[in-house]
Amino acid sequence: MPTYTHVPHPHTLERLEHKDKPVTTADVVKKKASNRFNAWLAVKITDAVGTMWCAYVFAIIALIGLPPALKPGGEGLIAWIAQTFLQLVLLSIIIVGQNIAAASSDQRSESTYKDAEAILSEALEIQRHLQSQDETLIAALNEALAKLPPA
Fold it and tell me: Which tens digit of pLDDT belongs to each residue from 12-28?
C-alpha cells in the first residue's frame, strides 16, 4: 500500500524560497525615476496638506475671505461656504481621515500577513507530522498485519 506524498502548492514553494515581505507603497513606485519623483512629491504634499494644522490655516484663510463675500456684489454666504470654506478646510480634514484609515489598514494587512505566514508554517508542520506517521506507525502496522496468519 503506497503512502501519501504531499505535493505543496506552487505559491507555497515560491513563498518559502523568497521569504517575501508584504508589498509596500515604496515597492510599487520603484519602477521608473519619474514615478519615484512624482510619488515622493505627492507624498510630501499629502503629508503637508493632510494635517489638522493645515486645516486650521485653510480655515483662517477662508475666514479672511468671508467679509468680502458678504459685501454687496460679493459671492454671498452660500457660495463662500461651498466654494471656499468647504473646499479648503474639508480637503485637509478628509486627507487626515484617509491617512488614519490607511494606517489602520496597513496594521490589519501586516497582521493578516503574519497570520498567513503562521498558518503556512503550521500546515507544513502538519505535513511533516503526517509523513512521519506514514513512515513509522503505518509501516509498523503493515508489518504486524503481514505477520498475522491468513484468515
Answer: 777 777 766 666 666 66
